[in-house]
C-alpha cells in the first residue's frame, strides 16, 4: 500500500523520506492543520514551541483516529513553527520524532514562519495519511 523512497543520488534525510508512493485505489485523508488548542479552544503552552508541538501531535492523533488512521499511516506533513531560529525548529522536530510520527519515515517539510492563525500560536502541522483497510499494516 505504501512505499517510502529515499533517492540514492541525494543526501540522505535524517528522519524522513524524499517521497512516498501510495498505490492507486487507496483511501487518503487530507487533514487540516492540527493546532495547539485544548478542548475549550484555548492555546496550550503559550510561549513554548515544544509544549505546543506536543499538543499539536495529540490533536493530530485524534484527527487521524477520527478518520480510521494513525501516525504510522501518515505519508506527508508540513510542520510550521513561528521562529527564525534553527534551534527552535530543531526542538520542535525532536518533539515530532518523539511522537513516533517520523517512524514511517514520511515525507516532511519543516518551516519557520512569521505567524499562524491563533494569537499566541507557535506550531501547526498539516498531514496527509492513508486510511487503511481493516487490519492493514503501514
| Discrete helix count | 2
Query: In what order do the strands lie side by side in the largest sheet?
Result: 3-6-4-5
Broad structural category? alpha+beta
Number of strands: 6
Q: How would a textbook summarize the main sheet?
A: 4 strands, mixed
Q: Hey, roughly how much beta strand do the residues contain?
A: 25-35%
Overall form: globular
Computed CA radius of gyration, to the nearest angstrom:
15 Å
Helix content: 10-25%
Instruction: State the end-to-end CA separation.
Output: 8 Å
Average pLDDT reading: 91
Low-confidence runs of at least 5 consecutive residues: none
Oligomer description: single chain
Short description:
With 138 residues, the protein is an alpha+beta fold. It has helices at residues 49-66, 86-99; strands spanning 2-5, 19-22, 28-34, 74-82, 107-113, 123-130. It contains two helices and six strands; from the N terminus they run E-E-E-H-E-H-E-E.
